[in-house]
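User: I'm curious what two different proteins look like when written out as structure tokens. Can you demonstrate?

Assistant: Sure. I'll show them one after the other, since each token string lines up with its own sequence. Here's the first protein:
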Amino acid sequence: MLEKRVIVCLDVRDGKTTKGIKFKGNVDIGDPVEMARDYYEQGCDELVFYDITASSEDRGIFIDVVEKVAREIFIPFCVGGGLSGIEDIRRVISAGAEKVSLNSQAVKNPEIISQGAAVFGRQCIVLGMDALKDADMPSGYQVVINGGRTRTGKDALEWALKAQELGAGEIVLNSIDTDGVRNGYEIELTSMISKAVDIPVVASGGAGRPEHLSEVLTRGHADAALVASMVHYGDFSIHQIKDALRKDGVAVRIPEEIL
């Protein structure tokens, strides 16, 4: 059985990890370098680092923070925020990231996906997609960018399929409607996208308890689940989450030293 991944997300603003609800009311909660090291030691499978204001502020990513985090962890590390071209991607990968997440810039300039895949391999190119319920869209969901500030008019399902065609190797799918609420992932959205594409889909937005991960990894057909609030606030450790998933019959990696 293919193992499912548990991924921790660090949203970073002005060099500090921050967390909000539905992309609003963000408060600083810690140092991203220290938190990354802690989650790595707990046994998370991957880490995602988002510079959440880089695109809206029209600036490059804080590369020094990326370098510091990369020195502390030895698991796949994905970085996103303000990456507008091949040279930005090169800088991030050279700083120690294995993958880059393209969100707002991919919508504005879809060719960055195909260009990135051609230069670095599609395994390095992740589509970050923030979606909002919208009954006027064919799939029922609209893509939003710039940290949830801008509606694009793009249908979420159509954009996922287009990004895969362009060369994206993975999709991190975040539901703004459930983001930070901790009542569970958006199962309908996740299942729809996961079934439609042939690349891995990471569910994001809404995790509050281990059973939420179990649900999205089974009923939602996600390949991985991204968590933030439930670990940032100390409600659960990575080991507790994985132990609960194993008891639910979900195959996950457990580091030997904590078995």
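Here's a second, unrelated protein for contrast:
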Amino acid sequence: MAEGSGSASVAEIEMAFQKFAVHGDTKATGKEMNGKNFVKLCKDCKVIDGKNITSTDVDIVFSKVKAKTARVITFEQFTQAMVELAPKRFKGKGQEEALQQLYGLIAGKEPANVGVTKVTKAAAVDRLTDSTKYTGSHKERFDESGKGKGKVGREDIPDTSGYVSAYKGQGSYDSKVKEQE
């Protein structure tokens, strides 16, 4: 027997099934798995290897084991699907051995990227957020510590008074209105 083919417990398989079943679906109970997550499980656990098993094979098996009108499979149907896929994935192995090896791939796994949102900082972002790199009039926008001064650091604060630029009687509207009363 190949290394890593120690028989995986049903509990470990069922755990993996449940984790993938609820992946990306807040309403899922973990009792049933949809086709998308079934394919994800097969991809993440390397059941799909691109040679012996492709995502098309997985789709076909999924359709085969699910109930006619259903769009999900139960854990029992999932195990049936694995029985179908095992000999394809591990060609030349006996049914039982192939199945054990397939389960070995799945046991204890969970969806890749589950709840992992890595903050990627591109070099461009570093460059743009480094106040020491600003030159000329732009460097006036930061104090010594590199913290932005906000509006104070800008000279070209737009005039939002509503008057046309260079209008001499700016601010005299109220007094004119009062005169006419």
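A detail about the second structure: The helical segments are 10-21, 35-44, 55-65, 75-89, 95-106, 123-128, 173-180.
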